[in-house]
C-alpha cells in the first residue's frame, strides 16, 4: 500500500499526470460578455472594458466578493444590466491558466 505524499497540496493531481484546466465560457443566450478590469473604484465597484467595446461600471456581488479577490487586469465575465447598458455585474473571474486557455482557443 502506498503512503500518501505529504509534500503534495490537497487538490493537486498525482505526479506525472497532465494538467487539466476547467474553464467556464460566457453564455451568449444569457448576455454574458468577457471583459478586462481597468480600474478599481472602491465600494465593490470596478470599471471593466468589455469585448463588445463598451466600458462599463460593474459591481461585484457579495457572493463573489466574499470568495475571490478581483484586481486590475483580471479577465472577468460581465452581465450587462437590461435597463442601463453602461453598467453590469461581475459574475466570474478567470485564473492565469484559464486566461491562457481562452487566448489559445481564440476567445480573447
From TrEMBL:
It holds the Pfam family eIF-1a. The keyword Protein biosynthesis applies. Residues 21-95 form the S1-like domain. Residues 1-25 are annotated as: Disordered. SUPFAM superfamilies: Nucleic acid-binding proteins (SSF50249). GO terms for molecular function: RNA binding; translation initiation factor activity. Keywords: Initiation factor, Protein biosynthesis. Seems to be required for maximal rate of protein biosynthesis. Enhances ribosome dissociation into subunits and stabilizes the binding of the initiator Met-tRNA(I) to 40 S ribosomal subunits. This is Translation initiation factor 1A. It comes from Methanooceanicella nereidis. The lineage of its organism: Archaea, Methanobacteriati, Methanobacteriota, Stenosarchaea group, Methanomicrobia. The gene is eif1A.
